Amino acid sequence: MVQTLKKSWTTFKTIFTGMGVTMRHLLQPSVTLRYPEERDELPSGARSKLFVHIDDCIGCKLCERACPVNCIAIETVQATKDVDLGKTSTGNPKRFWITTFNIDMSKCMYCDMCVPPCPTECISMVPEYEYSEYDRNNLLFQFSELSADKVTEVKEKAEKEQEEKQRKKKEAARKKKAQKADQTSKAKQKNSEG
Amino acid sequence: MALLIFATLPLLLIVGYALFAIWLERKVSAHIQDRLGPMRVGGWHGWAQTIADMLKLIQKEDIIPTNASRFLFKSAPFVLFAASYAAFSVIPFSSAYIGSSINIGVFYLLAVTSLLTLSVIMGAWASNNKWSLLGGMRTAAQMVSYEVPTIMSVLSVLVVAGSLNLMTISEMQTGNDILGFLPNWLIFQNPFLIVAFIIFFISIVAESHRVPFDLPESESELVAGFQTEYSGMRWGIFMLAEYADMLLLSLLGAVLFFGGWASPFGSYLSGPVWGFIWFMLKGLLFVFVMMWMRWTLPRYRVDQLMEICWTILIPVSFINFVLIALWEMTF
Amino acid sequence: MAPVTSPQPAAIENRTMTINMGPQHPSTHGVLRLEVTVDGEVVTKVKPDIGYLHRCFEKYAESLGDYAKVVPYTDRIDYVSALHQEMGYVIAVEKLLELEVPERVEYMRVILAELQRIASHLLGIGTFGLDLGAFTPFLYCFIERENILRILEKVSGARLLYNYLCVGGLMRDIPTDFTSDTWEFVTSFRPKIKELNDLLTTNSIFIDRTANIGVLPAEVALNYSASGPMLRGSGVSWDLRKNDPYSIYDRFEFNVPVGQGEMGTVGDCWDRYIVRVREMEESLKIIEQALDQMPGEGDVKEAVPRRIRSKEGEVYVRTETPRGELGYYIISEKSGPYRIKARTPSFVNLSILPAISKGALVADLVAIVGSIDIVLGGVDR
Ligand code: SF4
Ligand code: SF4
C-alpha cells in the first residue's frame, strides 16, 4: 500500500518534471531553418559537388586513378608540335587535349579522394547542393570544352603526327638498317679483300 | 428544416474542431520539439494545412485488402464516428443549446461511447492483419477496463450533483460562492472530487488512447495498430473520430468538474455566447494538456496499463466514491 | 430425470502466431527482419533475419587493391559512427606498414572519435526513447547531434561519411576555429544531459518499461562475446580504451561506467541505456583533456605516404566503437590487401537477441532491440 502510494507519487513527480522540460521548450524559439527562404551557410570545405577548372587540367589522370568507384572518365590526346596549349595558372605546361572529362555524379560518393592528388588543384568540391535531376543521365557532368569537330580534328592531327612519327621512325630505322647493311657489306668486302 | 440545422450544428463543430485540433497538435508538438510545424499552406502559420490534408485524403484511392472482410472493414470507421457524434447530442454547449436535454444524459453518453470499442475491434478484425488484430485485442481490453474507473468517477460526481441531466448539472454550477470567490464548480465543492477528477482524467486519456496509454496504435510496436490497413478518407475518419472522442471526453470533464458553460467570474461575462466560449476553452485546455503529455511521455506496456487500472485506479476510485458519499451525508 | 451434463468444452487449441517484424517495421532501426513467434503477445521465439543491407565490404576491399581507397568504404560499415570505423582501419594499416603518426594527428583523431561517440550515443538514446513512444527526446538528441555534425562538417566537409582519416594522417588541415567550436559544444552540452535525464532517464514510465527487461547476465554476455555498452551494461568493466589502449587513450583519465542494476537487475535495458548516457559524460572529459594537451602546430599530412607500398604480413587491430569492439583483420600481400575482415560489434550483439527476448512481450522486444543499439550497416557490412 505504502509502496504503491510512493510509486504513484514518483510517477506523478517525474511526469511533471518531464512536462516542465517540454513546456520550457514550447516557449523557446525553434531551431528550424525554413529551407528555401532561409539557408544554412555551408562551411567552405563542404563536399557537395565536384567542379573542374578544365583550363587548368593537364590531363595527368591522377584523379581518375584515385577514385574508388571509377566515376571519372578522362580521355586525352597528345597535342601536336604546332600548337602550344599554354600553361596552367600554377605554371605547369599543358601537353594534352582533354577530349573527354566526364564525372558521373550519380556514382560519386563524395569521398574527396580525387581532390588531393591533382597537381594543379583544378578539381575541387564546391558547396553547391541543389542539383537534383529527374533523369540520371543529366548527372553526367561533362567538363571538356572541345566541340566534336575539334575533337575529331585534334584526333586526326594527333594520329597524323603519330603516323608521321612512326613513318619517320621507320624510315630512320630503314636508313639505319641500310647503313648497317652497307657497312657490313663494305666490311665484308674489306675482309674478302684482306 | 430548423431541426436539421439544429442537428448538424455539432457536426460542423466537430469537423471544424478536428481540423483545428490536428493543426494545434502539430503546432504544439513542433514547438515542444523546437520545430515550427506547418508554416506554408494558407499563410499565417499554415492554418490551412489540415484542410489541404483532408482534401488530399478524400482524393486518395480507397484500398481494401483482398482478404479483408469487406463490409466490416468499410463500415468500421463510420460506426466509430457515429458513436462519438451521437454522444455529442447530450453535451450542453451553452445555456441555450443542447442537442437533447434528456434526463439520463450521462448514462446515454457512457453507453454510446462504449460503441467505440466495438468499431475498433470491427476494423481490427476485418483488416485480416496480424498487427491490426493485436491492436484490436489491446483496445478491447483497455477500453473495457478503463470504463470502470471512468464510470466510478462520474458516479462520484453524480452523487454530489444529484442529477443525470448534464444541463442541470451545468446550471447548478453557476455563480461564485465558495469561499467568497471560487466559482461553484463541483471540483471545489467536495475535496474528494479532486481525486475523482485525477482518476477521471487518467481514464479519459486511456479511453481516447493517447500517450502514455496509446497502445492500440502504438506505432513503434504495432506499426499503426488497428489502423494499419486503412488509408485515404477511411483512415481520415478514424483520425477525425479520435479527435472528436478526445473533445467529447474533455467536454464531459468540463461539465462534470469545471462548471460546463458557467463563467469563472460569476455573472460577469456570462450569457449563451460567452457560455459557449468558456465551455470550449475548458474543453480545449484539457485537449491541450493531453497533447502536452503526449509529446512528453513514453508509453506504458500493455500489462502495466492493466495493472494501473485494476490495482490502483479501480480500488482508489471505489474508496473515493465511498468517502464522497460520506462527505455528502455529513455536510 | 436425466442428469444435467455440462456441455463438453471443445479442446482449446493453443496456437502460436508468427509475425514478421520488419524489414519495414518502424522500430527495427533499418532493414532488420525479425521472425517473431508469439503466443498472444508473449514472444516465444525470435529469429533475426539479416542481410538486407549487405554491400560486400570485404570483397570490395580485396578487389580495390589499394589500402587508401578502402577508407571511404569503411565509413559505410557503420554509418552512425563512421569515424570509428575509419580509425580502426587506419590504425590497422599503420601497424602493418609500421608508420609513425604525428602527435597532433593522434589528438585530433581522439577528439573526433569522442565527438562521434557522443553523436552516436545520442542517436542510440534518442531512438531507444522513440521505440518506447517518447518522441520528443529523440528530437532533442538530434538537435545536439546536429551541433556535433556541424563541427565535423567544418573539419571534413561531410556530415555523415567523413573519409577524414587517412593512412598516416588526416585528409585535410584542421580549421583554425576547431578548438573554440569544440569548447563551445562541450560547455553547452553538459546541461543538456541533465535535461535528458529529467525528461527520459528518471521518468518513471521509462523506468517501468526498461528496468528488469531483457536481462543479460554477465556470463551470457561473455559467452556470446558481446562488447561495448551491451557488455558493460551487464556489469563487466571492459573497455578497450582502458584495457588495451590504442592510439593515445592511455594518456587520458576517464571512468568506465558499468551497469549496476540501480533500477532493477544488472544487465537490463535501463542499465544498457544509462551506460550510454554516462559514457557521453566520460567522452566530454576526454575531449576536454585532449583539447588542453593538443599541440597547436604541426603538419597533419607529414607522415602520409604518397603511395602506399604494401607489405606482406598479417595484423589484427581492435578498437572501441560506440557499439563495442570493432576488429580489422588484414592479410596483406606485396600487391595489396589479400583479405580484410571486419568484425563488427553490431552483428555480434544482435546475435544475443534470441537469448534474451524469450518470454518478453512484443513491446519488450522493441525495447530490447532498441537497447542493443544496432546499426544495420554494421550488421550486414
Ligand atoms: S569524390 Fe570520390 S567518388 Fe567522387 S569522383 Fe572524387 S574520388 Fe570519385
Ligand atoms: S588530377 Fe587534376 S590535372 Fe590531373 S587529370 Fe585530374 S583534374 Fe586534370
UniProtKB/TrEMBL annotation, chain A:
Indicate the segments forming the 4Fe-4S ferredoxin-type domain, all copies. 48-77, 99-128
Catalyses:
a quinone + NADH + 5 H(+)(in) = a quinol + NAD(+) + 4 H(+)(out)
Q: Which positions does UniProt annotate for [4Fe-4S] cluster 1 binding?
A: C57, C60, C63, C118
The record's SUPFAM superfamilies line, in alphabetical order, gives: 4Fe-4S ferredoxins
**Entry's Gene Ontology molecular function annotations:** 4 iron, 4 sulfur cluster binding; iron ion binding; NADH dehydrogenase (quinone) (non-electrogenic) activity; quinone binding
Cell location: Cell membrane
Q: Where is this region: Disordered?
A: 153-194
Recite the UniProt keywords alphabetically.
4Fe-4S, Cell membrane, Iron, Iron-sulfur, Membrane, Metal-binding, NAD, Quinone, Repeat, Translocase, Ubiquinone
Gene3D superfamilies on file? 3.30.70.3270
What positions does the entry give for [4Fe-4S] cluster 2 binding? C67, C108, C111, C114
Stretches of Basic residues bias are at 167-178
The terms describing its cellular component in GO are:
plasma membrane
Q: Where is the composition biased (Basic and acidic residues)?
A: 153-166, 179-194
Q: What is its EC number?
A: 7.1.1.-
What PROSITE patterns does the record tag this protein with?
Answer: 4FE4S_FER_1 (PS00198), 4FE4S_FER_2 (PS51379)
**Cofactor(s) it depends on:** [4Fe-4S] cluster
Which EC class is the enzyme in? translocase
Q: What is its main location?
A: membrane
Q: What's this protein's family per the entry?
A: Belongs to the complex I 23 kDa subunit family.
Subunit and partners: NDH-1 is composed of 14 different subunits. Subunits NuoA, H, J, K, L, M, N constitute the membrane sector of the complex.
What job does the chain carry out?
A: NDH-1 shuttles electrons from NADH, via FMN and iron-sulfur (Fe-S) centers, to quinones in the respiratory chain. The immediate electron acceptor for the enzyme in this species is believed to be ubiquinone. Couples the redox reaction to proton translocation (for every two electrons transferred, four hydrogen ions are translocated across the cytoplasmic membrane), and thus conserves the redox energy in a proton gradient.
**Which named protein is this?**
NADH-quinone oxidoreductase subunit I
Task: Look up and give the organism this protein is from.
Answer: Fodinibius sediminis
From TrEMBL, chain B:
Q: Where in the cell is it found?
A: Cell membrane; Membrane
The record's Pfam families line, in alphabetical order, gives: NADHdh
Q: What class of enzyme is it?
A: translocase
Listed GO biological process terms: aerobic respiration
Chief site of localization: membrane
Give the catalysed reaction(s), semicolon-separated: a quinone + NADH + 5 H(+)(in) = a quinol + NAD(+) + 4 H(+)(out)
Membrane topology term: Multi-pass membrane protein
InterPro entries attached to this UniProt entry: NADH_UbQ_OxRdtase_su1/FPO (IPR001694), NADH_UbQ_OxRdtase_su1_CS (IPR018086)
What is a GO molecular function of this protein? quinone binding
Q: Which GO terms describe its cellular component?
A: plasma membrane
- Segments spanning the bilayer are 6-24, 78-98, 104-125, 146-167, 187-206, 243-261, 273-293, 305-327
| Keyword Repressor included in the entry's annotation | no
The UniProt keyword set, sorted, is: Cell membrane, Membrane, NAD, Quinone, Translocase, Transmembrane, Transmembrane helix, Ubiquinone
**Keyword Repressor part of the UniProt annotation:** no
EC number of this enzyme: 7.1.1.-
Family assignment from sequence similarity: Belongs to the complex I subunit 1 family.
Q: What does this protein do?
A: NDH-1 shuttles electrons from NADH, via FMN and iron-sulfur (Fe-S) centers, to quinones in the respiratory chain. The immediate electron acceptor for the enzyme in this species is believed to be ubiquinone. Couples the redox reaction to proton translocation (for every two electrons transferred, four hydrogen ions are translocated across the cytoplasmic membrane), and thus conserves the redox energy in a proton gradient. This subunit may bind ubiquinone.
**Quaternary data:** NDH-1 is composed of 14 different subunits. Subunits NuoA, H, J, K, L, M, N constitute the membrane sector of the complex.
Q: What is this protein called?
A: NADH-quinone oxidoreductase subunit H
Species in which this protein is naturally found: Fodinibius sediminis
**Gene name for this UniProt entry:** nuoH
UniProtKB/TrEMBL annotation, chain C:
Ranges for domain NADH-quinone oxidoreductase subunit D: 131-302, 307-381
* One function term, GO molecular function aspect: NAD binding
Compartment list: Cell membrane
Q: Taxonomically, which superkingdom?
A: Bacteria
Looking up Pfam families in the UniProt record yields:
Complex1_49kDa (PF00346)
Q: What is its EC number?
A: 7.1.1.-
Q: Per the record, what are the reactions this protein catalyses?
A: a quinone + NADH + 5 H(+)(in) = a quinol + NAD(+) + 4 H(+)(out)
Q: Gene Ontology terms, cellular component aspect?
A: plasma membrane
- What keywords does the record list, in alphabetical order? Cell membrane, Membrane, NAD, Quinone, Translocase, Transport, Ubiquinone
Which HAMAP family does the UniProt record give? Answer: NDH1_NuoD
Q: Note the PANTHER family from the entry.
A: NADH DEHYDROGENASE [UBIQUINONE] IRON-SULFUR PROTEIN 2, MITOCHONDRIAL (PTHR11993:SF10), NADH-UBIQUINONE OXIDOREDUCTASE 49 KDA SUBUNIT (PTHR11993)
Query: What biological function has been recorded for the protein in this entry?
Result: NDH-1 shuttles electrons from NADH, via FMN and iron-sulfur (Fe-S) centers, to quinones in the respiratory chain. The immediate electron acceptor for the enzyme in this species is believed to be ubiquinone. Couples the redox reaction to proton translocation (for every two electrons transferred, four hydrogen ions are translocated across the cytoplasmic membrane), and thus conserves the redox energy in a proton gradient.
Q: What is this protein called?
A: NADH-quinone oxidoreductase subunit D
- What organism is recorded for this protein? Fodinibius sediminis
